[in-house]
Amino acid sequence: MDRRGELWTVVLIAVAAGAWGVYWIPQRALADGGLSGGWSTIGQFLVPLILLSPSALGRRLRGHETGVGMPLIGLLFGGGIVFYANSFLLTDVVRALLMFYLLPVWGTLLELLVLRRSVAPARALTLVLGLGGVWLVFGADGGWPLPSNSGDWLGLLGGMIIALALTRMIHIQPEGVFAPLFAYCLYGTMVAMAMAFVLGNQFGPPPDADGVTRMLPWLTLMAVAFIIPTNCALMWGASRVSPGLFGIVILTEVVLGVVSAALWADEPFGWREAVGGAMILAAGTCEALVVARRTEAEAA
């Protein structure tokens, strides 16, 4: 890919990731509008699945991969987003975002404590920045800076699962984006339904018929204008730029998410959240640079 093509790919990834930074707004609006009980998340997978099914059937008749045979990609990619989406229903926006983007910290701790590997200076900086940011946001009361509710945990687990999904995508290098996208919708619907059942008491009662009917046009618009195009852009872009560059560019989601939460979410937001978020953002940038340097060394 030439420099001009790479630039436009980076712009596309940044726009798609940035759109996910304000995803919490329609997610909460759907829940407030009548899609309670976790059904706002279910609808965001089920409606795109219905819209894509005719194309999947056509691909099947022509002998092409539909995504049905990619359950691991679907469960990881779809499941990770289900965890992420539902975290906004159970915790503060900033806490959900920062938990989701803490994976570099846990990856570094895994290498240090479990694999007994030495940690390079850049990885040590990742650890210091990430844990420092966590302490500022989650340890304000002087206690351990750990997730304090189910929404925090869902955000954290969602980030871990999505990282595994991206690793799997890079490993198998699927042709095109339709098959992984359809797998995302199909298996993500299953995970969303299972989570609504398991966490039903925390999500609240399921919606009534009026709530579903009232929100269905908005779900369809969201599927066509947001979910399908942004996922296509991210899947396509991830296969065309280096993992390190991709890791840096998608941090636009954190930036826009934290800024939008500070402006529009009726939630506590002070210097701890601002500084802690900036530190976690810097940790993610350091980790992405390490990955980029490692990729270049392996290619040399």
The number of distinct helices, counting runs of at least 4 residues, comes to 14
Shape: globular
Number of β-strand runs: 0
Helix content: over 70%
Q: Unreliable runs, pLDDT <50, ≥5 residues? A: none
Order of helices and strands: HHHHHHHHHHHHHH
What kind of sheet is the major sheet? Answer: none
Secondary-structure content class? mainly alpha
Oligomerization state? single chain
Describe the structure.
This protein has 300 residues and is an all-alpha fold. The protein has one domain. Helix 1 packs parallel to helix 13, helix 4 packs antiparallel against helix 8 and helix 4 packs across helix 9. The longest helix is centred in the last third of the chain and has 30 residues. The radius of gyration is 19 Å and the shape is globular. The model has no long low-confidence stretch (mean pLDDT 83).
